[in-house]
Amino acid sequence: MKAYHPKSIVLALLFALILISCGDGSHGTLTAGGGIGGTGNISRGAITAFGSIVVNGTAFDTSNAVIIVDGEEAGVGDEVAQDSLDVGMVVTVEGRGGEDAAVADRVTYNDNVEGPVESITVINATRQDIVVLGQTVIVNAVTKFKGTAFDDIEVDDVVEVSGLSDDTGAIWATFLEKTDGVVFEVIGFVANLDTLGRTFEINDLTVDYSGADTSGLPGGMLLEGLFVEVEGMLDSGEMLAEVVELEDELDVEDADEIEVTGFVTEILSVSEFTIGNQVVQWDGETEFVDGEADDIAPGQKLEAEGSLENGILVAEEIEFWEPDQIEVEGLVTDDALAPGEFTVGDQVVQTDAETAYEDGTPDDIVLGVNIEIKGVPVDIIRSILIADKVSFEEE
Known about the structure:
Layout: H1 8-20, E1 41-50, E2 53-55, E3 58-61, E4 66-69, E5 72-76, H2 78-84, E6 90-96, E7 102-109, E8 113-124, E9 127-132, E10 135-140, E11 144-146, E12 158-165, E13 171-179, E14 184-189, E15 191-194, E16 199-202, E17 205-208, E18 227-235, E19 238-246, E20 255-269, E21 272-275, E22 278-281, E23 287-289, E24 301-309, E25 312-321, E26 326-338, E27 341-344, E28 347-350, E29 356-358, E30 370-379, E31 384-392
Parallel strand pairs: 1-20, 3-7, 4-7, 10-13, 11-13, 17-19, 22-25, 23-25, 28-31, 29-31
Antiparallel strand pairs: 1-2, 1-6, 2-3, 4-5, 6-7, 8-9, 8-12, 8-14, 9-10, 12-13, 14-18, 15-16, 16-17, 18-19, 20-21, 20-24, 21-22, 24-25, 26-27, 26-30, 27-28, 30-31
């Protein structure tokens, strides 16, 4: 796989170009506070539940939220959110209010890649790596499926994938749906740009943009390292682009609160790195959970929480995750399955000698107690989660 890592100068240039072109486009740049440069609460990560919409552990009220899917407004409100979105989709929520009273003003979803499956490599019983439009997609026990299942994916199936990209460009799928699409799309960093031949690459996909509409790019021009979305058709393994436009994960410059989950893609300095396309900065006041500052490295999955200042996430807390770890929070619904085994909602949880406990002990796991589990799914069929950490929550 060809991996491309954005450089800080490219990110700075890109951000400047975004500011220059701010306000262009059909939806403008509604921010978390309802206007350009406003403040509020932003969260980017996979949807874990509905009722409201839960992202990064925060439940956002979507009763008046604008829902945007693939650049188009789907509508407003809870019903539209649940009809247009699914658990596992990575979204950006722009809203206001704290963790206990968060309200979403806008929820934006855009898939990572949609196209035919080119190959499938089975890694083990809970993981297989598939290639879609030259992008390696890691499918595992974390992935939520629609219209297919882990064992049913076949070569030439057209699939839509949402997930988190790591430092190699591989997409760790959190959502995968079988579709019947004929126009395909992919997002990623422009690499090996050939302005004479009018081609560039996104990982192992060659894109011919000679006939593409590039008006959605700053100045209408492609640059090496730009983060773009490409839409088009396949021809002999190449993508004939119809549209190439800037893909901006955040339309916001400043926010009081921001939380982003993803993989470290580049180390920019001793105290700066990128998660996906987002620059993160830490200092001596930053709190580290389940890891230390020295553990920050390309490929490490992190959840960074803090404020957004001039487009930079200034981290108050950074939590370390394994690539296939998930989080489950709720009431214990059955505490008598077997020794060290219980359920939270419909999720079966098993503990072992390596499980860590916070604000409680194994004896405190009883019916009705509110707990948060951080662990790794190990059985897709039975939905079993091995708990790495059990945290007892206040009632």
